[in-house]
Design brief:
Helix 3 (111-123) runs parallel beside helix 8 and helix 10 (287-295) packs antiparallel against helix 11. It is built from 16 helices and 12 strands. It has 441 residues and is an alpha+beta fold.
């Protein structure tokens, strides 16, 4: 019989620190030298506050971003896609409240031509009338899909309510139906021209590359000039607590979101709340999952997670439950979130081992490193933030974790969204003291 391997203590780990450079036109470059990582990951970060979008045109940034990976004026449409494929490159995009990211992964041997295509897409995107109209229809179709999917609808409406009504980040990044329908190709082109300027751009590169990549970046971006603009960042504010039922007559299950206002990574209690919240609801063996899934059989799974933002943030408990048990499930979730039963040293130690153990795995590829580096740029976090955060978990005590959790998680100020059959849910949630309001979508 083969003996079981011994589990060794984890080896010391640190997040790879980058070198910082600037191109001749001032564009910052964040370069992570990662020996052995022969698939190179790059991100062109364009800082853009979504709150700048005109109210009647929300979603215009996201629509423009979708088109950046589909062609440039130098290589339109299918030719652009063909060149990407020939170089083994994959492009994508991501839009957040703070900016647009144009992402690219490519084998190191084809980095130079692939970066040239990325530069073309950012500096001179094609943006034809037909492509704008096509993506406009795709976005309208995506809105309909969200509204047909109760879990996606719960996520969307919870975010609307956890943030104050005037906060842009609480509304869909891609815009709502009326706003998207009102966009025109000229509006999108004009907006893209105002957004895609070199003063807003930072380039992040990770992989097995030498400093010669700077010459490639200089050739791609160094002669790019444009107007200087002011990049703003908008503050977040919490919405009003309360419980909303979004009616889906006849539903046999309900999607539930319960949460409240939280903190950001700069708060000194962040390491404490990471461990405490993992014990309460972040892990499979957490209190929420143990009671609501294992003991009660109300759900396939339920999870508590914190969403730190640039300033502030929120926490969310999410799960799907059989309609007839939603009232009891939400009452139990509220009790567990209150954490009146003290956390234990074993719970905190298990959370610490898990979170410190998975961190190195998350950044084992160039893609993971570049994603984290870009997040740190967006959140104004230092290069060594992750090392500090990793080390700070070791210093968390049972008392500090418990105190932080009870300071931050206030079950008297919860925001709840329940998507399901209002006729069945309303009496349950009223009896449970959630004072629900029914609405339609």
């Amino acid at each position: 019989m083969t003996s079981r391997p011994e589990v060794a203590d984890p080896q010391p780990w640190s997040f790879p620190l980058p070198a910082h450079h600037r191109l001749s036109n001032g564009i910052p470059v964040v370069l992570h030298q990662l020996p052995g990582q022969h698939v190179i990951s790059t991100t062109v970060l364009v800082r853009a506050d979504l709150a700048r979008e005109p109210a009647a045109q929300e979603g215009i940034t996201a629509l423009a971003a979708r088109l950046l990976t589909e062609g440039s004026r130098a290589h339109p449409g299918e030719r652009f896609a063909e060149l990407l494929e020939n170089n083994g490159a994959a492009m994508g995009h991501q839009v957040t409240a703070e900016g647009v990211q144009v992402l690219m992964d490519v084998p190191a041997t084809h980095l130079a031509p692939a970066l040239g295509l990325v530069a073309e897409a950012v500096r001179a995107p094609e943006l034809t009338d037909a492509d704008v109209a096509r993506h406009q229809q795709l976005r309208l179709g995506a809105i309909a899909q969200v509204e047909a999917n109760s879990a996606a609808l719960a996520n969307r409406e919870y975010r609307r309510r956890i943030l104050a009504a005037e906060v842009r980040a609480g509304r869909p990044t891609g815009g709502d139906r009326e706003q998207v329908a009102a966009l025109t190709p000229d509006l999108v082109r004009d907006w893209a021209a105002s957004l895609l300027t070199p003063d807003r751009v930072t380039v992040v590169v990770g992989g097995d590359v030498g400093d010669e990549v700077l010459d490639t970046l200089e050739a791609c971006f160094g002669d790019w000039t444009g107007p200087v603009s002011t990049v703003t960042t908008s503050a977040l504010a919490p919405g009003l607590p309360g419980c909303t039922i979004i009616d889906r007559p006849g539903s046999v299950q309900a999607d539930v979101r319960i949460g409240g206002w939280g903190i950001d990574r700069a708060d000194p209690r962040w390491p404490d709340i990471r461990l405490a919240s993992h014990a309460v609801g972040g892990g499979f063996n957490s209190r929420l999952n143990t009671v609501l899934r294992e003991e009660k059989g109300f759900t396939y799974g339920v999870r508590l997670g914190f969403s730190p933002q640039r300033q502030g943030g929120w926490f969310t408990t999410s799960g799907s439950f059989r309609t007839e048990v939603v009232g009891e499930a939400m009452s139990l979730a509220r009790e567990i979130l209150a954490a009146e039963q003290d956390l234990s040293a074993d719970e905190i130690d298990q959370a610490r081992r898990y979170l410190t153990g998975i961190t190195p795995l998350q950044f084992a590829t160039a893609d993971g490193v570049v994603d984290q580096a870009t997040l740190q740029l967006l959140m104004d976090l230092p290069d060594d933030y992750l090392d500090r955060a990793h080390a700070s978990l070791v210093d968390v005590t049972l008392d500090s974790a418990t105190d932080a959790y009870r300071q931050i998680v206030d079950v008297t100020q919860l925001t709840s969204v329940v998507v399901g059959d209002a006729e069945s849910l309303l009496p349950q949630l009223t009896e449970a003291g959630f004072a629900p309001v029914v609405t339609q979508i």
